Amino acid sequence: MEERALRIAKPYLDRLTMGVTRVLETSPGITEVVFVEKEPAERHAIVSWEQKNACVLPEDLKNFYLMTDGFHMTWSVKFDDNPMPLGNMTINSISKLSRLGISAAYTLPSAPTLADLEDTDEEEGNQDQPEKPHLDSRSLIFELDPCGGNGKVCLVYKNTKPVVTPDSEIWFLDRALYWHFLTKTFTAYYRLLITHLGLPQWQYAFTSYGISPQAKQWFNMYKPITLNTEELSEEAESFVNKLDPNKVFKSKNKTPVLKKKLPTQPPPSQKGQTGPAPKNAAPSGSSSRRREA
To answer: What are phi and psi of 271, to 5 degrees?
Structure first.
């Protein structure tokens, strides 16, 4: 049986990255912009995940997985004429959207879990902030992005009872196990991920103590996209929430190459395809007329 693979069509690939590849390609010192192309998640895999975890995925995140089973894009900078990895944009696949707080933090007998290590002190004077998640049975927490070891971006359900409309939020759990609110929806978080270019520790910009001095130097060199954020918001929301998977993907007979360097060269014209003649091409019959002359 011939294997059938799906690849994201070029116009939708540009919209998926919200044009950030063009920004990176035109920035000085940036090299090796790589987008890892992924096939869409199967619907039964999403249903299986929801049944296993007794919760319903938000509609925008579900549509995202139906378009691409996760997201991974990286870029490097030239350092002493050698590429050094710097930017990293990641969203875990549906199979790696695993729950936090239920496994032991260490591999020792009677080792504590993350819930045991969680800070339980309530911050004073923070009435305007949303209620923080809990790593015990009071919340359902799933890892969206491992953040390169600098923390975890999580999909959080505070209401663990089955509901028709899931009430979820996106939070950042830092390495000290303190919670920081990011966004109400996945679409809003996806926009933040793209506009911050995957810079190291960018999530700490939304904490009270901010990013480290070293990360701040990279921010000064490659500033996050701050222009036309409203347009980016509308484009991301429209693209993710009004997805037609039949138009996003095109069938291929060959298994797709997973890693794809950008920019790509335009595909060569197919045989039999008509188009404008090259500028230097001689008109038909010109050589025979010259011989007759």
So the answer is: -65, 140
Q: Whole domain around residue 208: which residue ranges?
A: 5-104+129-247
Nearest to 225 by CA among 6, 13, 23, 40: 23
The answer to whether the CB of 80 falls within 8 A of the CB of 35 is no
Q: Is 72 helix (H, G, I), strand (E, B) or coil?
A: strand
Best mean pLDDT range from 89-93, 191-195, 277-281: 89-93
State the Cα–Cα distance between residues 221 and 22, nearest whole angstrom.
Answer: 17
Dihedral pair phi/psi, residue 39, rounded to 5°: -75, 160
* Separation CA 209–CA 204 (nearest Å): 7
Q: Is 119 domain-assigned?
A: no
Domain count for the chain, please give it: 1
Among 148, 137, 258, 248, residue whose Cα is nearest residue 193: 148
Give the C-alpha distances (Å, rounded to integers) separating 94 from 3, 38, 128, 156, 197. Answer: 22, 12, 33, 15, 23
Which residue from 110, 119, 114, 120 is spatially nearest to 102, judged by alpha carbons?
114
CA-based nearest residue to 147, from 57, 80, 215: 215
Query: Does residue 252 lie within any of the structural domains?
Result: no
Query: Considering only CA atoms, which of 149, 148, 45, 23 is closest in space to residue 93?
Result: 45
pLDDT band at 260 (very low <50, low <70, confident <90, very high): low
CATH number at residue 45: 3.40.1580.10
Highest mean pLDDT among 214-223, 245-254, 280-289: 214-223
- Rounded distance between C-alpha atoms, residue 236 and residue 194, angstroms: 10
